[in-house]
Write a structure and sequence with these properties.
The strands form three sheets. Strands 2, 3, 5, 6, 7, 8, 12, 15 and 18 form a nine-stranded mixed beta sheet that branches. It contains three helices and 20 strands. The chain has helices spanning 8-17, 31-35, 52-58; strands at residues 41-42, 65-68, 71-76, 87-93, 106-115, 124-135, 141-152, 156-159, 171-180, 183-190, 195-202, 215-220, 223-224, 227-228, 230-231, 236-245, 250-251, 257-261, 270-276, 279-284. The longest helix has 10 residues, at 8-17. The chain is globular, with a radius of gyration of 18 Å. It is mainly β and 303 residues long.
């Protein structure tokens, strides 16, 4: 059953009622630390393969499919007329990452909910979970998960697993609410463990204040140590309860663009299906299966 988006006031009641200190360096032990040396991670705004206007022209300016070299999922490019987005929420199941066939080393992907950053590259406020997988010499796969938040162009901050533990299959809800261009609150809830982390954030610079023009539900091939990570096979990432609020009503996915992840050669790496007004599924595309969704995922539909 779909649950309603947190209103801006109820989110900030939660932020102050359940205030939790978030430390910036969760690197003392733990599975992920053993996977690799602590890297600097960073998300990016949407990196499209062509100007957005080119995709819109092909679709007569309606909701359309766009190609990106770092994002996959759903993005709303603008709010209703004369409105701005001031809150966004979404829920997802933490996928189990794996190392693609014939690959080695650490592979990663990030699943998140965000505001702005789709039609502009100066600002993006988002929060989510990074997934990591590494193939061991005995053929088994080591996996780990870390929650984080970031207001681009500021740095990412990881949330210590002592405050917010994660496992594959956990159900995570992310709420983001803006009190104005320079201040916002985030709330991450693990419904499977009843853990909750809240943070109040300030814009990292005068040029990165929120404008409330975009909201997103995304799987990202993000940056580690200044270079793009090797993308993990994330299987199927499932978002539901995808809603954005303007203060004058709630918007679902009916107006969203479908973002398809492609590699540097333009080959499809993921496929995206809008299942209904509040649900989007993102499917990793394995070699030799580039044009098909998993049979478990319906073709793109509109409610």
């Amino acid at each position: 059953m779909r649950t309603s988006i947190m209103t801006k006031s109820s989110l900030f009641f939660t932020l102050f009622s359940y205030a939790t200190t978030i430390f910036a360096r969760p690197w003392q032990g733990g599975l992920r630390y053993r996977l690799m040396s602590p890297p600097t991670r960073s998300g990016q705004t949407a990196q499209l393969t062509a100007p957005l206007e080119n995709f819109l022209a092909a679709a007569n300016n309606s909701s359309t499919e766009v190609l990106s070299t770092n994002w996959a999922g759903a993005a709303i490019r603008q709010p209703p007329s004369n409105k701005n987005f001031n809150a966004v929420s979404g829920r997802f199941i933490v996928p189990t990452p794996s190392v693609p066939v014939n690959s080695t080393g650490v592979h990663a992907a990030s699943i998140w909910v965000g505001m702005d950053g789709y039609t502009n590259d100066a600002r993006l406020l988002h929060a989510g979970v990074d997934l990591f997988a590494q193939m061991l010499l005995n053929g088994s796969t080591l996996t780990s998960y870390m929650a984080w938040y970031q207001w681009i162009p500021g740095p990412s901050e990881y949330i210590p697993s002592t405050l917010f533990s994660l496992s594959a299959g956990d159900v995570i809800t992310i709420d983001i609410a803006s009190t104005g261009p320079t201040a916002s609150g985030i709330c991450l809830t693990n419904e499977s463990t009843a853990q909750r982390v809240n943070k109040t954030l300030q814009a990292p610079s005068n040029s990165s204040t929120l404008i409330g023009q975009n909201v997103e539900w995304i799987i990202e091939n993000f940056m580690l140590g200044g270079t793009k990570s090797q993308l993990a096979d994330f299987g199927i990432a499932k978002f539901d309860n995808c809603e954005a609020d303007t203060g004058h009503g709630v918007v679902g996915l009916n107006a969203s663009d479908v973002v398809i992840l492609v590699d540097k050669e333009g080959k499809m790496v993921s496929n995206t299906a809008i299942v209904d007004e509040y649900m989007v599924h993102i499917s990793y595309v394995r070699a030799g299966n580039s044009a098909k969704l998993s049979p478990a995922i319906p073709a793109k539909t509109r409610a």
